[in-house]
Write a structure and sequence with these properties.
The protein contains eleven helices and eight strands. It has 358 residues and is α/β, with parallel strands linked by helices.
């Protein structure tokens, strides 16, 4: 979650609930043992574990099938607790709001390699099998079906990495969800500048002599410092940043503060694996397989997904039941992190839930 805060400039207040419904915004947490998880890049992860948080209660039809489950998928380095931040939960989970938790069973996993789910820093370190988004989605599926008894979702909502997971879900399990809302990504291989900053971050970590093949005694601080720099740039929003940091001294002081707060929270192996997971992502060949209604949203001030590449115009027409929207640059924009500020796109979610109603 702390890495995600870096990337998105969010100060996630995990325990803060919406004032009108504090009792319903206290999540239930649990773990699901999902067995051995084969990896396309090598050996299997044995005894894999998925951690989750839920809000609300499952509702079942006459056959016992859960009908109101919503899956929220966080970004790189985050956890399910990201969605408990006021700018998200305060806009969506209260009475009468789009994901009112008295109506919906909201599921927020810590995805593979993150939070309290199986991850390198649990002990395997650099011997942890390299995972990709295909394995992460399979881990989510096992958590839902085998652990929570959910074999159908009302909605899959994903931010950044979770956005890419939503496209993987739609192309590999097209009948699993009634609706998809991917936020802040592209449904194609990560290349160009987007790949470059990720490769730079990974190289910096493993080029630090203190990394010691992943068996470091202390965190490789020099490599992680460069990683923080890259994450801060990737998550930046140029227009508000120019206003908020109008002088050299203000900018330099801000950077010192960010490094001091972010660096101690990181584990080098966990971060390297989390960024590496996007290496072979590319659902573009299967976009025609997506059958559920889709609302796909990016923001024009997103460093990671710049609109001038024209990728959205290339891929959106191939999504049969899709709607695409680009949020304009504004003085209060959040850059890549716009996806976690629900006020920018809450109405789009309302429209998607209406047009995908069973």
């Amino acid at each position: 979650m702390r890495i995600a805060a870096m990337l998105l400039f969010l100060l996630v207040c995990c325990g803060q609930a919406h004032a009108r419904t504090p009792q319903t915004l206290t999540p239930v947490e649990g773990d699901v043992a999902i067995g051995d998880l084969p990896m396309a890049r090598g050996s299997a992860l044995t005894n894999a574990r998925m951690h989750y948080r839920t809000l609300g209660e499952p509702r079942r039809d006459a056959t016992g099938r859960v009908t109101n489950a919503v899956l929220l998928l966080h970004g790189t380095g985050g956890t399910g607790a990201t969605f408990l931040s006021p700018q998200f939960a305060g806009e969506l989970f209260g009475p009468g709001q789009p994901l009112d938790v008295t109506r919906y069973y909201v599921i927020m996993p810590d995805n593979l390699g993150h939070g309290a789910s199986s991850k390198p820093s649990d002990g395997l370190r650099a011997r942890f099998p390299e995972y990709g988004y295909t394995e992460m989605v399979e881990a989510q599926r096992r958590m839902l079906v085998d652990g929570l008894g959910v074999d159908r979702l009302r909605l899959i909502f994903g931010t950044s990495m979770g956005c890419m997971h939503a496209f993987v879900w739609g192309t590999t399990h097209p009948d699993f969800a009634d609706a998809l809302m991917p936020m802040a990504c592209q449904p194609t291989a990560i290349a160009g500048r987007n790949r470059l900053w990720r490769a730079m971050l990974q190289d910096a970590i493993r080029a630090d002599p203190a990394w010691a093949g992943g068996d470091y005694v202390e965190q490789p601080v020099l490599g992680l410092r460069t990683a923080v720099d890259m994450l801060l740039l990737a998550g930046s929003a140029t227009v508000p940043m120019q206003a908020q940091l109008p002088t050299r001294d203000a900018t330099d002081a801000w950077l010192v503060d960010q490094i001091g707060r972010r660096l101690p929270a990181l584990d080098a192996n966990d971060l390297w694996y989390a960024v590496n997971a996007s290496r072979d992502y590319d659902p573009s060949a299967g976009l025609e397989r997506i059958t559920a209604p889709v609302t796909w949203i990016n923001s024009a001030d997103d460093f990671i997904n710049p609109p001038e590449l024209g990728l959205s115009e290339q891929f959106a027409p191939r999504i049969a039941n899709g709607v695409y929207r680009l949020i304009s640059i504004s003085p209060d924009g959040k850059g890549h992190g716009t996806h976690t500020w629900a006020r920018f796109w809450k109405d789009d979610l309302v429209a998607l839930m209406a047009r995908s109603a069973p």
